[in-house]
Amino acid sequence: TATEDLGQTPVGVETIPTKWDVYEQFLRIPYYILFDPENNKLEAFHLVGSRYEQLEPTEQRIWIPGLELGLGLWKGVYQGIERQWLRWSDVRGSWIEVRSEE
Q: Where would I find the Putative restriction endonuclease domain in this sequence (predicted)?
């Protein structure tokens, strides 16, 4: 759930760590990105020191400097379904083609 993904569940002595805790504190994944397809909401966090800090999307896109890639919301048809999709973009902001578009 979104609450679990954002690490907002109570943590006790016997509680299993949330995904957030594992990514932030144990694996130290540099970027943590969430997409809610029901609300077309994109959220991104960057690891700064020992904690995630929220990034603000620009035009519904997040730039990931270490990868030289962006991740954003694209509206279009993919596999016969029209909706908002997560999609990679290059440094110029152009969407990266999927195999069916090549």
A: 18-73
Range of the domain at 91: 2-101
Give me the number of domains the chain comprises: 1
Name the pTM for this structure.
Answer: 0.78
Q: What's the maximum distance between 2 C-alpha atoms anywhere in the chain?
A: 51
